[in-house]
């Protein structure tokens, strides 16, 4: 398994500093379970943060401090691939949220080969799973806010590239995309968003709103 799409350094630093909310933390932690490269980045960031906090005098952080941490991360060696997990194995901490593996999830059939499983909502931030049959997609949409999508099984493709197990896509309001599941096995993603999705099709928008996208 080669992971090509990772969270940006700033997102990983926020996670390491405990500044991401629960839905975002779940997506990032699940990516980390699959990605030794990002685990190393977070470990470096935590070590750097700890060194700053352990100083006995207050440290005034400047823009240069962030750059310094980032430059240290750039030199971190890349770890070897993690041991492969079965395609429907849910890594921790997702497994605890599900109370089991991906094949035990009770899905709600939306329409057109798309299945949905809400996990939780905290304020405006929501966490959910989407399962797509091969060749199916959730329709053109943009976002009011930020959306993170982590591919757990199968793969999908949109205008920005191809995403397979372990790949994480970060989408912002300026991106209009239509992810479609690749041929082969079903595609399952873990997603979080801090605002509702904005669908181009009114019918899909209605379905999406009905099911809480
Ligand atoms: Zn990664």
Give a verbal description of the structure:
Helices cover about 30% and strands about 25% of the residues. It is of the alpha+beta class and about 210 residues long. The protein has 2 domains: about 70 residues, Arc Repressor Mutant, subunit A (Orthogonal Bundle); about 120 residues, Jelly Rolls (Sandwich), CATH 2.60.120. The longest helix is centred in the N-terminal third of the chain and has 19 residues. The two termini are about 30 Å apart. About 30% of the residues are buried. About 5% of the residues have low confidence. The site of zinc ion (ZN) has 6 residues, from helix 3.
Describe the protein's topology.
Layout: H1 9-16, H2 22-34, H3 36-54, H4 63-74, H5 94-98, E1 108-111, E2 114-122, E3 125-132, E4 141-143, E5 147-153, E6 155-158, E7 161-164, E8 168-171, E9 180-181, E10 187-193, E11 197-199, H6 202-211
Antiparallel strand pairs: 1-2, 2-3, 3-10, 4-11, 5-8, 5-10, 6-7, 6-9
The structure holds zinc ion (ZN).
Zinc ion binds at residues 3, 6, 31, 35, 37-38.
